[in-house]
Structures are given as C-alpha cells and as structure tokens.
Amino acid sequence: MLSPTFPLSRLAPEQRGTIESVDWAALSEPEAKRLREFGIDDGVAVEMVHRATLGGGPIACRIGRMTVALRRRVADAVHVVPA
Amino acid sequence: MTPAPLVALVGNPNAGKSALFNALTGARQKVGNYPGVTVERHAGRSELPDGRPVELLDLPGTYSLDPASPDERVTRNVVLGELAGERRPDALIVVVDAGNLDNHLRFVLQLKALGLPMVVALNMVDLATRDGLELDPEKLASALGLPVVPTVAVRRRGLDELRAALHEALRRGPRAVPAASAIADLRSLQREARSIAAAAIMSETATRRLGNRFDRIALHPVSGSALLLVMLFVIFQAVFAWSEAPIGWIESGMAALGEGAAAVLPNGFFQSLIVDGVIAGVGGVVVFLPQILILFAFILLLEASGYMVRAAFLMDRLMASAGLSGRAFIPLLSSFACAIPGMMATRSIDDEKDRLTTILIAPLMTCSARLPVYTIIIGAFIPDRAMGPGIGLQGLVLFALYLAGIVGAFVAALVLRRTVTKGASSGFMLEMPRYQWPHARDLLLGLWQRAAAFLKRAGSIILVTTIVLWALLTFPQAPEGQNQVEYSAAGRIANGIEVVVAPIGFNRDIALALLPAMAAREVAVAAIGTVYAVEDSESEGGQATIREQLQGRWSLPTALAFLAWFVFAPQCISTIAVARRETNGWKWPAFMVGYLFALAYVAAGLTYWIATAAGL
C-alpha cells in the first residue's frame, strides 16, 4: 500500500482526514447499515472531535457535516488518509 | 364527506421535525399508540391556506426506509401504507436540516421515489447561516424536482409558505416515478445527495464552531464527568427540594377531598371504597407528580439542548462494562423518579436485548416512592450522629441505599447479559446533534404530554389495584371485638407470607405491610402505622408515634433488613403492568418480579443475619 492509511480511531483530536476505505466485512449488518446512514463512504472528509487518551470509550468525530459517536471497534474498520 | 387529508412529517433524527410539528399544530395534538407496538403516535390538526383542515402525523425520525428499531419500522410502514389501522398519508413533508444537507437529502431522495406528493422543509436555516453556510433554496428545488420551503420551526418562520406549498402539492396529486428508482442503494443515493448539496451551497465560510470547543470539555473523561456529576447533583437537589411544597399541597388537597367525601357519603362500604380505596390510592401516586415533572423538565431541557447525547457518550464506557450501551443512561436516570417513565423511555434503544435488560434493571434505581420508607426507618433507628463536617450518619445510610441500588443494577445487568438476555454487544452509534437553545413552548408541550401519559397509565392501573387491595383488607368483615386487619383476606395472606419472611427477621406487621406496598411502596409505612393504630387504640396517630412504635417493636437488625429489602424490593403493581406493556407479554415481568424478590430476600436475609451476629 502506498498511501499511509490508518484507522479512524487513531486520528488525533482536531486532526482531519479523508476516508480511504471501509472494512465492511469487520462490521455486523446493523453496524454497516448505520455507518452508511451516517454517510460514511470513500472520499468523505472526517475530523476527530474527541478521543480519550487513555483506555477505550467511544470516540466522537465529524463525518461530512455531522458529528457522530462510535465505539472504537467500529471506528477501527474505517481507514483514513490524514489531511 | 371525505376525511381531511393525512400529511406525515418525516425526516432524519435531529432535523427539528417535532419542533416543526409543534409549530404547525400548536397544542392541538393527540398522543396515542400505534396498534400492536409501543411507539407513540403524535397526531394533530392544521389548516391549508383555504381553511381546509389537514391531519398531521409526526413520524419517528429515521435515516432510511430500512428500519433498525420499532420506531423506524413504524415510519417505514406508515409511509408505504403497510401499517394496519393507519391510512397511507396523502402527502409528505420531509424535514431536512439545512446545515446537514449532505446527509439529510439522501432520505429525501429515497422518499421521493415513492411518488407521494411531497414538500421539503429546509429547516434550521438560521443555524446554517450561523455556521457560515449560504444556501440557494431555488437551486435545491430544481435539482430535487420538489418544492423547497426554508423554515425555522422554533421561530415559527416559513410556516405559511409551507402550508401554501403543501396545498399545491396536494392539489397536483401523486407524481409519476420511474419504477426502478425505488431500489437505488444507500450508497448511490448518498453520492447523489452530496452532489445536490454541493450545488445548493452558494458559499461556505469556515467558522470556529463554538459547540466543538464546548465538546472538548463536555466529552472529556475528567472534565466531562465532573460537569455531568454537577448537573446530576443539581437535578436531584431540585427534584427533592422544589417538590416539597407542591407535594404538601397535593397531600392536603387529597386529605380535604377524602374528608369531604366522607362527610357527604353515608357510612359504609361505599364510603370506605371511595375514601380509603380510590382517593387515598390514586392520591398516593399523584403525589409523585411534582418530582416527576421536575425531573422530566430537566431531561427535556438536556435533550432539547443536545447535551443528553453527550451524557450518553460519557456513560457509554461504564455502561459497556455492564453489557449495556450509553443509551440506557436516560431511562435509568428517569427511573430515579419513577420506573414507569423510565421503562417508557427505553423505546429509543434499538437493540431488543439491550432494551429488555434496561427494563429489567430499571426498578433497581431507587424511585422516589421508596424515599418515605427510607426516611422513616432511618429516622427511627439510625442515630443522628455527625461522621465528619457536613456528613451525618443518617445521610450516609441514605446515600448507601441509593448506591446499593445502582451497584445492584450493574451486577444484575452483567449477569443478565451473560444469561437470559445474552447477545452480541449492541454497540453505540449515535448522531450528536448541534447544541441549541431549547424553546420554552416545545418544552412545556413535551412536559404536558409526558405528565398526561404518566397520569393516564399509572392512574388507571393504580385505581384498579387499590380497589382490589381495599377489598382484600375489608373483606371478610370481622365480627365484633376482632381486629379487622387480622381477620381480612389480606391478614390471612400475611399469615402465609410471615412463614416465608420470618427467617430474614421480618415480623408479622411487616408481612402485612408488604401486601399494600405492592400497590405503592410508600404505603408500607402507612400500613404499619394503621396496624399499630388499630392494635393500640389508646395511642394517638401521627408520625411521632409510628416512630416510637417502631423503636419499641422492631430490633435494629429487623429495621436494617427491612431497608435492604426495599432497595431491591418487588416493584409496585403499576411498574409490573408497564413492564408487561413494554415487553408485550407476561414472561419478562414475571421473570423480573421473581429475580427481584429473590434478590430482596437474600439481601434482607444477609443484612439480618450479619447484623444479628454482630450483636446490633
């Protein structure tokens, strides 16, 4: 792979990026559906709003024009290229 | 005469749909239930420009026509005309958030394929402008091929234009649609939506979003949790402090009503039924209304401002460790006032197992009905000793009782999620709405609707149960010289209960009190008072004597066991009935009653045995 992609869950707070690919197979049917409904798709702009430095806990990120909360396991399936 | 046209409001969650519905209908709303499902149906009336009435239906917010929760299924079925007992709408008003067109237009495109007459309400244009977005509604309308009306629902802007557009759409009737367009998948719809949105946006200035900055504090594990704790503290303080006066008014009002009825009605069964049964029983529930209203006012405020989702976000980590999701936080918070609205609030949880678990543990949150029981027992048995600056032993015990309920709920959730409600972790995926100022009119309307729902549900159930309990305590009639309570059916049942509860230190009076406590928990104290008052005819009534009576007749281990019992206590009959409604059957309420009884028994038993062994 040429582009340095990494999971959405590892974007630093306030860091922006673009979704490069989504590992749909790693997600359950309802999870994949909800992600699509949130507008997650290749090429969409994302920005990390909040991520706790320590431990698990959900993350909050902007997808396009909306802010959503996701658990890390789900956010791990979304691969982004940092802007 | 043809019925008024039915127009449904549909849209994504957080599009401001309900605010628009409120603005269009005012207070002319009817809240009911869709047949067969526990989803609230909000209907109301509005008028077209020519004065003709239209019936408006506020459908649950959803992202697509592919439903995930019961709420979303209702929206899909109504829109497709497949919900039994509900006619298909004649037209749709699709509400979109002007600040999030990329996402909301996707649903518009999906609905457009249905061919129903349709108007797009471009809502919250003021917020979009605030965020630096300049939109061209006409461009949007021509790209969509649908009428678009800019609105600001909370400021009542654009309503006349919306009614005019609706009138026109209804007049034109159904649109022709290509047969295949309905099957377009989410992804291609989303791409189309994005390109239409891009075309409709004239300019975009990057503004620093104040909300984002606040989120860095509100979502932070340390500062966010501190903020949440402070808010919860203020809410609980208000729930108990502000409700004192209105509770007093209701109590004296009910007492006056009882006396009035007693004076008017002839002595006898009928008088006893009305005064002791109906007025006392229903009054016992209505007394909680002030606390419930105050708690609801706060919950509505937090929801409308957009903060509630942030609270759920913060709580998700903790909830996940018990196998629940952050969404369970709101129902559980409501349950501190009363488990009935708490259980009703679980409807927003889409995962069935998750929702069921939340319903099953909701009664473990100490509801306000248990407070009078706690206060009187603590007052009688726990010495008023200071344990430190500002911390009294009595307060500490009360706090411990609340904490025991919360811890018990978490342990119960953990166990349930690994046994009877086993299933994959449901996850936590939520849209976080923008912060906004709540609107007083919408808050008041919501408060009114929730209060009415509570009174209707709790009131009707409690009415029946109090009548049954009154009958159990009144019949058969004791012959002259015998104690009525002892002689009654309830007294005889208590004899049976006593055998079971004797090992955990409960005496006969407690056994007798447990029965009416099923109607409403706080009645337990009054019931014990009644028993003692009847037995000791020379003693005077009133709380002071109940306290003395308790001190004289109960040992400390018994009192502690009684408190432990009430932490896990079998919930009141109204709660059980609502659990049946929400789970569509008797299976889960029966399980809930069973496991809570077992838990209460073990907790009370352990408390009694340990306290006795410790020589208390």
UniProtKB/TrEMBL annotation, chain A:
One of its GO terms (molecular function) is transition metal ion binding. Pfam families: FeoA. Gene3D superfamilies: 2.30.30.90. Residues 6-82 form the Ferrous iron transporter FeoA-like domain. Keywords: Iron. The keyword tRNA-binding does not apply. PANTHER family: FE(2+) TRANSPORT PROTEIN A. This is Ferrous iron transport protein A.
TrEMBL record, chain B:
One of its GO terms (cellular component) is plasma membrane. Gene3D superfamilies: P-loop containing nucleotide triphosphate hydrolases (3.40.50.300). One of its GO terms (molecular function) is ferrous iron transmembrane transporter activity. Keywords: Membrane, Transmembrane, Transmembrane helix. This is Ferrous iron transport protein B. Signal peptide: none annotated. The chain crosses the membrane at residues 217-240, 277-302, 322-344, 356-382, 394-416, 454-473, 559-579, 591-611.
